[in-house]
Amino acid sequence: MTTKKLTYWQRNLRLIATCLVIWFVVSYGFGLLLVEPLNTIRLGGYKLGFWFAQQGSIYVFVALVFYYAHAMNKLDEEFHVDE
Amino acid sequence: MELDLKTLTYIVVFGSFALYFGIAWWARAGTTSEFYAAGGGVGPVANGMAIGADWMSAASFISMAGLIAFLGYGGSVFLMGWTGGYVLLAMLLAPYLRKHGKFTVPEFIGDRYYSKTARIVAVACLIIASLTYVIGQMKGVGVAFSRFLEVDYGLGLGIGMGVVWVYAVLGGMKGITYTQIAQYCVLIFAYTVPAVFISLQLTGNPIPQLGLGSTMADGSGMYFLDKLDLVVTDLGFKEYTTSVLGNNINMFAYTLSLMVGTAGLPHVIMRFFTVPSVKAARASAGYALVFIALLYTVAPAVGAMARYNLMNTIEPAPGENLVYEQRPQWFKDWEKTGLLVFEDKNNDGKIQYTSDEKTNEMVKVDRDIMVLANPAIANLPNWVIALVAAGGLAAALSTAAGLLLAISSSISHDLMKGVLTPDLSEKSELRASRIIMTLSILVAGYLGLNPPGFAAGTVALAFGLAASSIFPALMMGIFSKKISGTAAIVGMCSGIGVTMLYVFQHKGIMFIPGTSFMGGMEPDWFLGISPNAFGIVGAIVNFTTAYIVGIFTGPAPVEIQEMVENFRSPGPAGAAHAH
Question: Model-level pTM?
Answer without folding.
Answer: 0.92
